[in-house]
Amino acid sequence: MRALRPTVALILAACGGARVAPPAAPAVFPDARTALRAFIDSNVGTAEFRNAHWGVLIVDPARGETLYTRNADKLFMPASNQKIVTGAVAIAQLGPDFRWTTTLLARGPIRKGVLDGDLVARGDGDPSISTSMRGDALSPLRDLADSLRGRGITRIRGRVVAAPSPFTDAPLGLGWAWDDLDEPYSAGVDALYFNEGFTQILVRGGARPGDPVRATTRPASTYPQLLVHATTIARPITAADSAQRRPRLTAGYDSSHTGVRVGGTIAAGDTAVLELAFRDQSAAYVAALREALRSRGIAVDETPRDSTSSLDSLVALRSPPLRDVMRAFEKPSQNQIGELLFKTIARRATGVGRADTAQRVVESQLVAWGAAPDGFAVRDGSGLSRHDYVSPRTLVMALDAMRRHPEFRVFYDALPIAGVDGTIDKRMRGTPAQGNVHAKTGFIDKARSLSGYVTTADGQMLLFSMLCNNYSVPTATVNRVQDSVAARLASLRLTSP
Is residue 66, in this structure, part of any structural domain at all? Predict the structure, then answer.
């Protein structure tokens, strides 16, 4: 049976390199292993998957024993299983208590409560300035404004501007689909980052057909600028009429670059919410900060001032620790946190906050954990790129590295839990996997993944990775197979009494 290499290496290292007999382990039921292999083969080997590629690896790390393997060293598009790699490397490289810091600086003197110059915001990629993490994305920016008021500042004669970003490459990942770039899950990233990179647009129909349609943005109400060209139509009378007159709204960037155009139709008295990624992340942050300042009574003149003066630090905002950010990253599979972690890892390790630098750092860590150099191709931190490739064995190596890490619980607790929360909150309910399986999902077109940890009925933690690419059946069919295998693992009894 194939041993898991990091586990064997640790045993040999602990014994000074000498080959010693491992401690006796309870006997394994041969029938249980044989039945498991037959069960998985019967699921992934059906005619409906004849054009698909399956990669599966299931390991009992306590024994260094492989329970099942299929194409475990082949490369697959992992989709958001890439977040297993990013999260594991982040914990190893940054530590669970790592925090990001945003600083406000004065470019000019402060006299009698007036900053005679610009207020400069310097970020380093804090992903937590969002409604999902803070309840209100403007709340931490209001805290910064309160701190400025605490220093007696009530007016800024200059502008609110962004400092040069330490992330010096493109805000978008390599190979991201261009037709998804206005979607919130495809937003670019930068060192100043507001509300996970997107806005919500609340659209309200007029009281009567033909009345003006109103639209506002949130959480910041001043950015982006909206150009409303939508039309109020009559409310539906019958069920058939209702299907025809439901809101048919669009929101997209105007070709004149003056704002976001809201078009389409909405019934009288109806409301609808649209979501749109920001095109300029720093501009979105600065607009929200300016709004927060004014809400706290700090006037901003927006008058151009001398931009050559030295900068003096005024106040700073620290993010929650990485241990908290991990839950906001892994459970909902939040892409932009993955990209910010990716570039933060690079900046901390090398001083250069670029994706190509992050690629080298992550690849080196994977090799250090025992992964084969040809067992992965890292291009981003989220898995949105169709140029990411990874083998099931590489993912299991990363899972095992975390299992042996002192901060394993941070990683383990951040993963979605079957039937409980995250992206598998509705999956595997009513099976032994519910509340047991901690695993990361992944989905982009023709790629579906599930990898993580499961505890058997006799208390053995197993590591598993199931990757499926190039299928033509509904994705729900792939989910069904992955869920049934995970439930089967949770019900296993591997050891004799």
Answer: yes
